[in-house]
Amino acid sequence: MGKDVIIACDFGSKQATLEFLDKFTDVKPFVKIGMELYFAEGPDIVREIKARGHKIFLDLKMHDIPNTVKKAMRSIASLGVDMTNVHAGGGIAMMQAAMEGLEGKAILIAVTQLTSTNADTLKNELLIDKSMNETIMQYAINTSKAGLGGVVCSPLESEMIHSHFAKNNIPFITVTPGIRFADSSKDDQSRITTPAKAKEMGSDYIVVGRPITQAEDPVAAYKRCVAEFID
Ligand code: C5P
To answer: Is 101 exposed, middle or buried (0-12, 13-18, 19+ CB in 10 A)?
Structure first.
């Protein structure tokens, strides 16, 4: 499994996204398209970025009944994305249905618990009595049972997840947001690590948004991430 840096293209329009991508002349970074851009521009934005030669992680975090998810994944498969995701909270049957719909055309990963969910939300709103780590681990195990390739999680959880699956000889990747340079702003992220630390903790892919998109020189910031995480 190739390690890579994925840029979160959290822009509200096609124009802003393409202006940003135009800055990259000698490299074609792996990019993440999320709900904001996809719902604003529709599937054409995926086709256009794909045609420019980028790999795409389509981050729509599906969570619905198995039949609906299977059919939605069939549509996503036809877009030619490289990676996409569902919520593990939808259960094993839903994740299996997603795999069937996708027919192996992209890497499918699952969100365990959103990093915005804290221990208090888990216990008092969702009425889950297990700890955050136990819940995340169980969701990762369900994800693997359903045949998916890995999970989105914080780099701090990626160590625990990798050690569980490595012990059992099961290939399983972790895709980790919450990345900041040692000398940059945390923004609204709380559980953060640097690209170098994420590498040390075993992340397979890091997802980096604002440290690259808001940088004075986004190409230099991207290359700095690659140098810390891969080289
Ligand atoms: O700008 P920043 O680097 O914080 O962007 C991180 C990206 O990863 C955003 O697109 C955000 O929605 C996404 N993400 C996250 N935490 C998760 C799941 C996804 O920050 N648990």
So the answer is: buried
